[in-house]
Write the structure tokens for this entry.
Amino acid sequence: MRAIALVMLALFAGCTDQAIIEAAFPDREKYAFASRDGESIFTYTCAPKETPEATKAHAREAHVYLDTRFNAAVDGAAEKLTAVEDQRRARAITRALDAEIEDIVEQTEERYECLFIQGRDV
């Protein structure tokens, strides 16, 4: 379930060609952090702050925010999916997870000026 959600997260983050991302955000720096569960690496492109250290600290805050919300969303959906037998209900749960992941990515960018650009397994 977590792997499927990670793929959805990557899709909603605009997992586009790297050149497009770099053209859209030419002044941003890339940062990668391990997920809380240690199963994934999340990569972000973040707006620069006063110093490189401040930018990295801000990127880490963005990661903690995204990782926390992402895990809560996936865990909640997994619990609901294990209890449901109706395919229509399962699809509704999956669509709700899609919407939550989209919001997580958008809110991370809005709050921290850090765009999630990639998720991969360790």
